[in-house]
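help with these tokens:
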Amino acid sequence: MIDSINILPVGLRDKEEVIAYVLKTREQLFPMLDHKVIPKDLQEFSSTYVETDLGVFLQARTGQGELIGTIGMMVYNDRFPYFSFTATKIVEVVKLFIEPAYRRSGLATRLVHELKKISQKQGVELLYLHTHPFLTGAYEFWLKQGFDLMLSCEESGFETLHMTLDKTKVIKTDTFNSFMENC
């Protein structure tokens, strides 16, 4: 089953279908969010993921063309002030979504593997991501993919787990220390 799945970058032809899929899946996984607000990366999908030297959005499709999974990486924008990075080419891994019938099949691991290969070709020095404990199995999955936990804290009312693929490139800043004192 998993061998007949194609993983390829999203181009302009598939963009609208993939964005609709991501928004629908996001609404199911995060019902507490305001879904009238479209995330900036999806609003600017082409410049964030397609027309860029640092980033990509991958899609997984069955042999019949059914969209069954996604993952993206985009330039990290320093949106979390708790640490800084010694690397200069940093991406944030985002929107790993797998259709329920394909979960635990190895598809998510294949998507991450392809993303890592592309990041290496693009010269990415550090992969960063965050996840949440309420996403069953997510933290354990990312640990199996080689990511390390850098920080667990509350963000916008959610416990958030900040992770990187190489913890040696993370510097915890004074902002991090003062943040931790107030947790």
